Amino acid sequence: MLGNFRxxxxxxxxxxxxxxxxxxxxxxxxGSNVLLVYGGGSIKKSGLYDQIVTVLxxxxxxxxxxxxxxxxxxSDKLNxxxxxxxxxxxxxxxxxGGGSVCDYAKALSVxxxxxxxxxxxxxxxFEEPDCPIIPVGCILTMAGxxxxxNGGAVITNHAQHLKIGHVFGDDVMPKFSILNPRYTMxxxxxxxxxxxxxxMNHICEQYFSGEDDNTSDYLSEGLMRGLIHAxxxxxxxxxxxxxxxxxxxxxxxALNTLVSRGKTxxxxxxxxxxxxxxxxxxxxGMTLAAVSLPYYRFIxxxxxxxxxxxxTEVWGxxxxxxxxxxxxxxxxxxxxxxxxxxxxxxxxxxxxVTEDMIEGIADATILLTGGYKTMTRDDVVTVLKASx
Length: 388
Ligand code: NZQ
Ligand code: ZN
Fold this sequence. Notes:
alpha/beta; Rossmann fold; Dehydroquinate synthase-like, alpha domain; six-stranded parallel beta sheet; two-stranded antiparallel ribbon; binds 5,6-dihydroxy-NADP; binds zinc ion
């Protein structure tokens, strides 16, 4: 049964090949100083940077820039950006890139006017902002994280070996996001596939919990079926616009607060993946792929009915007299085959994890309680060893 909840998502979306045409309408709502934030240069290569700068100039904006936001953005980079934003008096932060750039922009938005150390305040003490927040707009170039329509901002602190996400509230969510699937077509295959698995896992994290009959789970099943279908087309032909547009839209709905309404959620694959990321700086979606199957096989006995439902409703496996345990195992085998088919990383060694890192990664893994089994630190070590 659905519990009590509030639903409100303030992000306005513009989707499709003409989405950038609407940037000028959005710019009219903000002051003249725009802080343009982007990554390591893909937007310069693709020509998107020039298009955006032209629109900003035509609309009389002063442009300051933060370039070089790295995948898995760091607390040091955040501090660097705070100084730039303060010096330029930003009225709008315009993020152009993937989840890392969008997350970074949100973290920056609550840090520029913060009197405290942002890492300590938001990521160690998990406090909420009590300072003015600079509005953020996103122009997305990679599908996966859902950052374009949520309050998540994941930051890595290399010195402390921690990668932590803070999910901020409505005031921090992007005011608008521009989603043109064409922009994702220049992504390297590795990133495209990592993004696809990130989407799949976001849905799984919200699906594998609870025993009730819940609309959110039916929505999740539809999203997963659509994603699997589109992914198979996209890996064969990455230039297939229809598939890439479906993947982009699914990514947004997989983590924009909809499918978690009225139920508990798991998120332990992400906790494991983030801890791996803190040690290796590996691509986010691949860290999830490497630990997923050992984790799901470990918790499956505690949620066997849902895993059986996953087999029949997502993978189309016929019940055909099978027990729930048999069906559940078949569903995870189908997941495994699909993961191999699209070319995901299937173990931690490929990401550079060695046996001697396991204890540290376990220490960095935050234990959550919403899934079928509350993990202990020993359980985490077991799953990490099985993922090597
Ligand atoms: O930096 P540039 O040069 O732009 O290159 C990027 C980067 O190297 C490249 N790229 C992006 N769009 C491209 C492109 N290359 C060519 N053409 C394009 N159109 O792809 C690389 C990866 O980009 P990144 O932004 O790091 O990927 P992603 O979107 O997967 O974001 C990952 C970050 O988001 C966090 C992750 O932890 C990680 O830090 N997450 C954020 C979440 C949220 N806000 O809710 C939830 C997720 O679970 C995730 O944790
Ligand atoms: Zn993710």
